[in-house]
Recover the amino acids of this structure.
């Protein structure tokens, strides 16, 4: 790396860091104002609230039926993680190990749900789900969420599987492992770090997936982020602090999983998965 | 169908079995593992899209094209394209233009991970929470306006929510980290020896950027622009919560949502979704067409 | 031949230091390179040889000392102001530019007129024997061809000094020998001054006029290949020059230029290459070629054969003494595995070094 030490480049560097600092400062201030508000007794026209309280959490908990919402959220997320893991890893294995006619078309179908924004395909998807009666149900929400997560798992796993030497599998077969044993004793241990990383990212993304859940969820199949949207949308009905308390609950839920995920993945992986597509 | 069955029979009788022949072309039990995932996507992605496309030509009333006709003649509908572009294009360009110099600095950092972790937070929190946060933070009594007044830059609070700027800010907070992390991954993917080589050959910092980095980065920047643009173009929750959903920030996804869930006109909603997809596709294709002008290939250097 | 490298008399490194995170640091490196010399910087990885090269090129700042090109101090200049040609280990060819544009890059940066760039690039490509590949992209070339492009790109700017950072390490063995000869040919044709970093002593011995051996950021020895090969000044240099037997012992007596060490139950006498003191620990270094089976007596180790390999004209084996010292030896006849033999080296072929400086 070449480090330039001229005056103009020093000014330039200063400007870049000021921008980054400004961005991060505003980000934290924004999060901070939500957290502050959620603990405020009354906060009008001053820098800081008049007093502090935790009662908004208990009121949010009962007003928004957070217990039910959280339960649904985790059920949805759990089902999405398990199903996209099963379908995604097996498909990724086939795509990483075999070259066959029509592979490019399949890759395109897998890539598109990640590139097309959820709101665009969500509306026709919701239409179909409403007409088949799936919309509003638990499985309707899970199905909608699978559309981007299965391709995501596939694209994360393909390069991961490709780097495992196929001769290792051949060797296991030579030593008498059948397909099942091969999978359990050879592939699983090798793939586990990749699967774990992929599924944690799916988990974080599904908790935060608003559009698809919003379009297909009914009153009993709302996840936390959709409930939060309705609460903000209907602001004025409830106290602001109560909504902010709910927002904090949502933040904590998401960030806890993000922190866990970051122990296994690089932060850039959260956005750059689309780059992992194999070269055609 | 019967023809192929017959043909297969013949193959079984003479020469290698069907099983072997298929395996030779890459079809065997392992290949079949792709079927469940593909079937799911066919059912939940390809089929709804095709269904939506057909449905958009089966309006509640009028001729096949009447949904599209209505969209492009009703100013309340067709202006949404313009309003959405007015938000998404400037934000995407700004994000990209700012990301590039920042990525070039961060590439030299030893503790990149702390910064990238911080920047992943707004992406993870998602648009709804950012919208709620900004309502507090950018509101007339929020910390942002208070600080500006305290510093003496302004006398009266700026109106930053429930209008264009609120949505703009939320797209910036969500979009900048996304754009930046993509750009960073492209920038760090370039072999540092290329810059060193350019320097020893007499290129100064600006020449190294314009003659080496920029041409190599161009395809990656084009992809980044497309991905960031498509995200910004589909802005929805923040346009409702932070913007002026009936006016200035009535973006195209709001129009689609209202058609589907307020008017229950799925045919019209599908038509708007298709238009949304086509505008995105047009910009992406336009961007990709320019890619043909640039170098495409490995950027990690030219090892062996 | 119109590629005329800029003239200068000497490049001087004066107590160049670089302190940064322990590894790859340099400690007071002082070296003078005369015009026309081919200098090899030799050492194991992390010894500071690439760091030295990068400091000369300006890619890494020095933290102390100075670098001079004749009367001009250059360590404060940016790399683009130094005008040295450099060949990188990964070649670092610009992937988006054709061969011709790659080679012409440096001239373009200097604002040379197009016609002249074209003429000079053609000439440089002819010199590296790549005429006809000019319009290809680097990705379409083989490793050896990429290497030639990298060399052409470095010399076309007519640099006073050509720097090469392990340029052959990415090539297979056969191509490496071929390119080695090419590099020397180009050096001679142009009358260039070359500083060449390598960890391969064969490369250094066959290419260089003078070799600089570095270890842990310190210059251990500077000398002609012959001097280094015959008279290594330090045990680390001996290691590098093929003294595969490095036997630790205690000095029991000295006589003139020779010293005798006690090694377990045996004694070994050799020529002192650094001053040692009676009673102190020291090393005896012996090449495998000089340790052969023979009669018991002076400078003989009783050992048991562990492995034996046929090498065409001779055998090379390993043996272990009763004190657990492993020895590598040569033999002109087959020796049975497990046999007890005596391995002898003539005292004038044994070098004695004090323990690491």
């Amino acid at each position: 790396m070449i480090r330039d030490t001229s005056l103009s480049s020093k000014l330039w560097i200063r400007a870049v860091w000021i921008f980054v600092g400004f961005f991060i400062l505003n980000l934290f201030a924004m999060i901070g104002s939500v957290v502050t508000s959620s603990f405020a007794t009354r906060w009008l026209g001053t820098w800081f609230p008049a007093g502090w309280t935790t009662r908004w959490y208990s009121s949010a908990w009962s007003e928004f039926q957070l217990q039910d919402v959280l339960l649904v959220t985790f059920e949805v997320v759990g089902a999405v993680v398990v199903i996209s893991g099963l379908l995604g890893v097996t498909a990724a294995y086939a795509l990483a190990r075999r070259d066959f006619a029509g592979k490019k078309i399949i890759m395109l179908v897998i890539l598109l749900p990640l590139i097309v924004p959820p709101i665009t395909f969500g509306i026709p998807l919701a239409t179909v789900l409403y007409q088949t009666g799936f919309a509003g149900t638990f499985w309707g929400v899970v199905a909608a969420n699978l559309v981007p997560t299965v391709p995501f798992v596939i694209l994360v796993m393909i390069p991961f599987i490709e780097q495992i030497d196929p001769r290792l599998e051949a060797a296991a077969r030579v030593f008498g492992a059948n397909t099942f044993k091969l999978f359990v004793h050879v592939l699983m241990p090798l793939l586990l770090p990749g699967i774990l990383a992929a599924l944690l990212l799916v988990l974080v993304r599904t908790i935060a997936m608003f559009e698809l859940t919003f379009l297909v969820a009914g009153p009993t199949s709302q996840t936390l982020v959709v409930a939060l949207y309705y609460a903000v949308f209907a602001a004025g009905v409830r106290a602001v602090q109560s909504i902010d308390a709910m927002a904090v609950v949502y933040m904590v839920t998401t960030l806890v999983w993000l922190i866990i995920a970051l122990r296994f993945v690089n932060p850039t992986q959260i956005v750059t998965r689309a780059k992992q597509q194999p070269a055609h | 169908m019967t023809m192929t069955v017959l043909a297969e029979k013949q193959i079984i009788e003479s020469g290698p079995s069907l099983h072997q022949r298929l395996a030779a072309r890459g079809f065997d039990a392992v290949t079949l593992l792709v079927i469940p995932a593909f079937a799911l996507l066919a059912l939940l992605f390809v089929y709804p899209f095709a269904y939506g496309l057909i449905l958009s030509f089966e309006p509640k009333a009028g001729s096949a094209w009447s949904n599209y006709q209505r969209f492009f003649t009703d100013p309340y509908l067709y202006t949404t394209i313009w309003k959405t572009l007015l938000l998404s294009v400037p934000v995407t360009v700004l994000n990209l233009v700012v990301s590039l110099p920042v990525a070039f600095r961060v590439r030299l950092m030893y503790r990149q991970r702390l910064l990238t972790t911080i920047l992943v937070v707004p992406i993870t929190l998602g648009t709804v929470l950012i919208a709620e946060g900004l309502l507090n933070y950018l509101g007339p009594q929020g910390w942002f306006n208070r600080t500006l007044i305290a510093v003496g830059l302004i006398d009266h609070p700026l109106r930053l929510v429930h209008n264009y700027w609120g949505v703009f800010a939320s797209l910036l907070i969500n979009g900048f980290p996304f754009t930046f992390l993509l750009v960073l991954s492209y920038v760090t993917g370039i072999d540092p020896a290329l810059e060193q080589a350019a320097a020893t050959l007499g290129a100064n910092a600006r020449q190294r950027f314009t003659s080496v980095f920029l041409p190599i980065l161009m395809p990656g920047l084009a992809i980044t622009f497309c991905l960031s643009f498509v995200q910004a173009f589909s802005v929805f929750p923040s346009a409702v919560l932070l913007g002026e959903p009936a006016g200035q920030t009535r973006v195209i996804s709001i129009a689609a949502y209202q058609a589907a869930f307020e008017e229950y006109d799925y045919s019209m909603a599908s038509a708007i979704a298709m238009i949304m997809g086509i505008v995105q596709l047009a910009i992406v294709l336009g961007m990709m067409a320019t890619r043909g002008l640039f170098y495409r290939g490995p950027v990690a250097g030219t090892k062996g | 031949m119109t590629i005329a490298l800029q003239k200068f008399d000497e490049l001087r490194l004066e107590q160049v230091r670089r302190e940064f995170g322990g590894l790859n640091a340099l400690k007071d490196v002082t070296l003078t390179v005369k015009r026309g010399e081919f200098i090899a910087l030799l050492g194991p990885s992390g010894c500071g040889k690439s760091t030295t090269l990068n400091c000369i090129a300006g890619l890494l700042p020095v933290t102390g000392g100075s670098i001079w090109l004749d009367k001009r101090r250059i360590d404060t200049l940016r790399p683009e102001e130094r005008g040295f040609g450099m060949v990188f280990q990964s070649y670092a060819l610009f992937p988006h530019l054709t061969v011709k544009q790659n080679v012409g890059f440096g001239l373009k940066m200097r604002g040379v007129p197009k016609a002249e760039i074209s003429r000079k690039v053609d000439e440089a490509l002819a010199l590296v024997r790549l005429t006809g590949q000019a319009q290809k992209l680097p990705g379409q070339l083989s490793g050896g061809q990429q290497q030639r492009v990298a060399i052409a790109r470095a010399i076309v700017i007519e640099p006073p000094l050509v720097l090469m950072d392990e340029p052959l390490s990415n090539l297979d063995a056969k191509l490496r020998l071929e390119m080695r000869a090419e590099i020397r040919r180009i050096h001679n044709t142009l009358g260039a001054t070359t500083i060449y970093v390598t960890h391969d002593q064969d490369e250094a011995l066959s290419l260089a006029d003078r070799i600089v051996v570095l270890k842990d950021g310190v210059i251990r020895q500077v000398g002609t290949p012959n001097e280094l090969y015959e008279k290594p000044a330090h045990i680390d240099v001996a290691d590098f020059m093929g003294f595969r037997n490095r036997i630790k012992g205690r000095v029991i007596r000295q006589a003139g230029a020779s010293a005798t060490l006690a090694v377990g139950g045996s004694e070994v006498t050799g020529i002192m290459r650094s001053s040692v003191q009676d009673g102190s620990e020291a090393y005896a270094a012996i090449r495998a070629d000089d340790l052969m089976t023979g009669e018991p007596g002076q400078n003989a180790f009783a050992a048991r054969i562990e492995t034996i390999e046929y090498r065409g004209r001779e055998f090379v084996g390993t043996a272990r003494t009763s004190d657990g010292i492993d020895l590598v030896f040569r033999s002109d006849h087959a020796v049975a595995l497990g046999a007890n033999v005596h391995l002898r080296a003539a005292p004038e072929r044994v070098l004695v070094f004090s323990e690491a400086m």
Observations:
- Chain B is about 75% helix and 0% strand.
